[in-house]
Amino acid sequence: MKKISPMISLVAAVLLLAGLIAPAPALAAKAAPGPSVGYVDRQQVFNSYPGIQDLLRQIQSMREAAQKDYDARSKDLSPGERKALSDTIAREEAQREDALMKPVGDKIEASIKAVAGEKGLPAIVDAGIIVYGGVDITADVIAKVKQ
């Protein structure tokens, strides 16, 4: 076997190292324009939603009415019939609540997407999972929801 001279080995190592390091500044420059992840505190946005307290009170009233309905209708039923009645009332109640809450969720989601687009953020996550970095868009989403 032929021996490779130390000079050729050194030149090869330098070229290899230069090839590995050279792309790093170019990649850093591409990533430098700004953050690519935003975060939002959805609970804070929900609590700031216009009229949300009235809506929650309406849902609570509906639940109380459903409980009274169950109590009145289940007096003379067997345990199996009570379970079936309870399931039916619960399913109907969930549908009514979903119908009331869907517009709220839709508007919050649309507001998050709009703010993300305005800020050029391709990804938005919940504030509860952020440890470091990112852009907080909560205040902007609340402002958009209130429009």
TrEMBL record:
Chain segments carrying region Disordered: 68-87
GO cellular component: cytosol
Family stated for the protein in its record: Belongs to the Skp family.
One example of a Gene Ontology biological process annotation: protein stabilization
SMART domains xref list: OmpH (SM00935)
Annotated organism of origin: Propionispora hippei DSM 15287
Alphabetical list of InterPro entries matching this protein: Chaperone_Skp, Skp_dom_sf
Keywords (A to Z) from UniProt: Signal
Signal sequence coordinates: 1-28
PANTHER family membership: CHAPERONE PROTEIN SKP
Entry protein name: Periplasmic chaperone for outer membrane proteins Skp
Single GO MF annotation: unfolded protein binding
Top-level taxonomy: Bacteria, Bacillati, Bacillota, Negativicutes, Selenomonadales
Keyword Signal appears in the UniProt entry: yes
